[in-house]
Amino acid sequence: MQTLVYLPIALSVVFGLIVGPVALRLPPQAATWLISVGGLIAAVGSTSSLSLLAFTLVGQNPVLAAQGRWSQSALHHDSPVPAAVAGIALIALAVISVRLLRSLIVRASAMRDAHLLSRSLATGDQELAVLDEAAAQAYAVPGWPGRIVVTSGLLRRLDAGERRAMLAHERSHLAHHHHLHQTAVRLAAAANPSLRQLPALAAWSCERWADEDAALTSPRGTVASALTRAAGADLFASPGVVLAAGAIEVDHRVRALGIPAPRLRRWPLVSVTLVLLVIVAAVGVAMHDTERLFEIAQRAYLATH
Description:
Layout: H1 7-23, H2 28-58, H3 62-68, H4 72-78, H5 83-121, E1 128-131, E2 138-141, E3 147-151, H6 152-157, H7 160-175, H8 178-191, H9 198-215, H10 220-230, E4 243-244, H11 250-257, H12 266-303
Parallel strand pairs: 1-3
Antiparallel strand pairs: 2-3, 2-4
Helix pairs in contact: 1-2, 1-12, 2-5, 2-8, 2-9, 2-12, 4-12, 5-8, 7-9, 7-10, 8-9, 9-10, 10-11
């Protein structure tokens, strides 16, 4: 436990540093899953390590020790974690709890608003809602079912091929539940500040995923043209989980559509996956070592009672 308990914290920082460059070299679908799932693993791993560190101090509380039937003095004597380190971990956990709660409330509120908006836009299974607005906008609203919202101003700007490309882009957001990937990375960033760049990375990769899906049914140039025409307009007041086609780095995405889609590169993906596997393994070993520490304290308690 002396070393391994700190490893997930250190490796979560490493993950936060390398996932961006690696994700840019992967197909958007693989990049999105790596960012969201990897971010959750890194956040859970670092938080677990902090919890194990803090519990060596919390476990020395006389009331808790009596209830758990372990020796407070034995735990204090045998614990490899300095009290100052455990105290810092406890404070960090308190801060993380507040950040997570705030992030959960904000995201849950946005999801609720999106579902209310989805129900108000159309009835039944109708997928498309057209707003009579001059602004050129298209966006996906998650819900049951999700809706694709397009303004009449944008429809007038697009030709038939560009309309098909735009609808395919927004349909990809709904079909692949991109808002859930973005929710995952927001929670991960709340739990671990070293992952704070993940929401922007996930937003980029989700848009690129939808771009590439649209390019499966329309020429890449047509998709790029549709994105360009939808770019620049601010969204109307809308929930934070709404995914707008022209909202994120359109120039860079248009350039990406000018070249073939990236192929899956094995070694960058394997390298990041190994980091995540070591995080999981280190947490497992640290949990086992912590359990043994408390078992020793329990035997000391039984020996004196």
